[in-house]
Amino acid sequence: MFSGIVEEAATVVALRKEDGNLHITLRCSFTDELKIDQSVAHNGVCLTVVELPGDGTYTVTAIQETLDRSNLGLLRVGDKVNLERSMMMNGRLDGHIVQGHVDQTARCLGVTAEDGSWRYRFGYESNSELARKGYVTVEKGSVTVNGVSLTVCNSSRNGFEVCIIPYTHANTNFHQIAEGSVVNLEFDIIGKYLSRMMEFAQ
Q: Model-level pTM?
């Protein structure tokens, strides 16, 4: 379980394909605090630490299902990846309930600087079947973009906007997102449960 509050943007130092899997090696400031089998969200994708070689890096593995649903297969060495370790039970929920299960990707349609903040517009595939699963946004609701818990504005059937403060812009990989960039989306789990219950109630 995560909250969508990114701790750090780690750097990809190596990528290795093995059959349908992608082994991703990263460097971050808290590598020494990690342990094998620990869950860490990477751009909002919950992945398990599988290697800790002791050189300040660690490795996680993304399977084909994850690569199909997320932007992790587009990573290149040197890219920044948003990291969040799982929530502690006695911690504050500063964002919203995030599972680390990416629903689909979206594409950045534009970025506008607004006197100290930035407005990002995203578009995503939408149809009646996806909407029935709760893959929608609502005005002033929550959405996770690359693992960052954000408030939706100007929600439409297949798009939405978010406003990014300077701290988030500087300390996540949002400063690398530009028009055309592909990002990971996780829609609000409460909305997905409600959509499912409504489907069964019909």
A: 0.88
Both tokens of residue 150?
Answer: 């954000």
Residue type, 175: H
| Per-position b or e across 50-68, b if 16+ CB within 10 A of its CB | eebeeeebbbbbbeeebbe
Q: Which two tokens stand for residue 2?
A: 């995560």
**Residues with Cβ < 8 Å from 138, sequence gap 6 or more?**
152, 155, 191
- Give the residue from 74, 3, 85, 72 showing the smallest Cα distance to 41: 85
Other CB atoms within 10 A of residue 137 CB: 27
Going by C-alpha positions, the residue among 161, 168, 171 that lies closest to residue 80 is 171
Average pLDDT over residues 27-36: 97
Q: Report the distance separating Cα 84 and Cα 42, nearest Å.
A: 7
Give per-residue pLDDT as tens, 57-86.
Answer: 999 999 999 999 999 999 999 999 999 999
Q: CA–CA separation, 188 vs 202, rounded Å?
A: 22
Distances (CA, A) of 62 to 47, 127, 196, 198: 7, 27, 27, 33
d(CA 49, CA 39): 7
Distance CA 87, CA 67 (A): 24
List, for residues 38-54, the tens digit of each pLDDT value: 999 999 999 999 999 99
